[in-house]
Amino acid sequence: MLWQPSGGSEMTKSRVPHPDLFPLLEAHGISLELFWKRGPAGPEIRAKRRAIVTELHGRGLTHPQIAEISGLATPARFSDLVGTSRARENQRRVGRTIGRKNLEKGQQPSPRISPEKHAEEATTYGFLADRQMLGVLCKHGHEVANTGRSLRWKKAKGYPGDCVQCRAKDRKQRYAATSEDSKAGARAWYLANRERAHLAQKKYYEGHRGKILEYQIRYRKENQEKVRASKADHYQRNALRLKAKQRARYYGNHAKELARRAMWRLQNPEKLRAHQKAWSTSERGKEATRRVQTRRRLRIHGSLGQVSLEHKRNLLIKCCGKCPACSKTFVSPRARCGASPSWDHMLPLVRGGLDDDSNLIPLCRSCNSRKGRKTLEEWLGIAKGLLLRLKLGEDLHVSL
Hints:
Blueprint: H1 10-14, H2 21-28, H3 32-36, H4 43-58, H5 63-70, H6 78-82, H7 84-104, H8 115-125, E1 132-136, E2 149-154, E3 160-163, H9 164-177, H10 179-192, H11 194-207, H12 209-222, H13 224-237, H14 239-252, H15 254-267, H16 269-281, H17 283-301, H18 309-318, E4 342-345, E5 360-363, H19 365-371, H20 376-382, H21 386-389, H22 393-399
Antiparallel strand pairs: 1-2, 2-3, 4-5
Helix pairs in contact: 16-17
């Protein structure tokens, strides 16, 4: 026959007590209503509840079995009812179970070490003593210097937490899966908070300047090829802006820049000689040397005039990029094959000609050498058929 309470809450009326509960209630002198009553209870009622649950524990019953007989809502309340000693025993039993499972997996428990030993290990292996510590070897085998232990993050109470390398690996995988969204979000935040980001970067740099410089030096030393390729790519993409910036810095601090360069030459004579040798043997260096020598010769003869790159470019277009005398194709001075344009003067400088747009004609070097000190008209008379080779010969003569 089921027990029917005389009063109480709807929850109490809908619950059915276990038959084994009644002898315990009679033995401890407490009614079912008071045993199941919710809310605050006096010390006498709490003591009787604790005694009943303790007796059920003493019989070796499990938490689900005790919950079924006593009718209490959750097994979590048993620790409070049984007492602190029983709760500690349950915690120790759970800890022993976890430790036994770790031993079955081949993992050794983390030994307890003194603060002095922990500080010594942090100095030896180079980790953060206040945030990291050596713990049990992780399942991926991230070992620290053949110690049989892994570097782990320290929890709030000083216990080892997750493996540092495992967490970094997981973070990289998550970032790779959401890298596009993360970059877009970071870029949008940066554009919306540019001043705040700059202040944060400046503050971080001032607080960690030595660490940042040390990392940069180590990275450049370990990744020389990568750094060199990155610099070359950056220079090609921003050549005009960088040249303008260098020019402004040079002329803005002209005296200081000249003194700095002079000091560098005095301090690095071997590097200076090697650089000069490499420059003089390169195509660009040879072309620059020829231009310097030509300008010096022009100053000596007093025939320095006005020459524009646009006019030279127009002449090459009229000649279809070929030598008017031999039809040899012109190429850039940096190229490894073909002929470089050699600008000749129709009236030679030694005979009073000017280095001016009206006195220039593009020739290959061999034709320029054959022309020598002759005027254009004298050479055209000797080299028969030159007018036929010049596609725009008449226009060229008129414009020149």
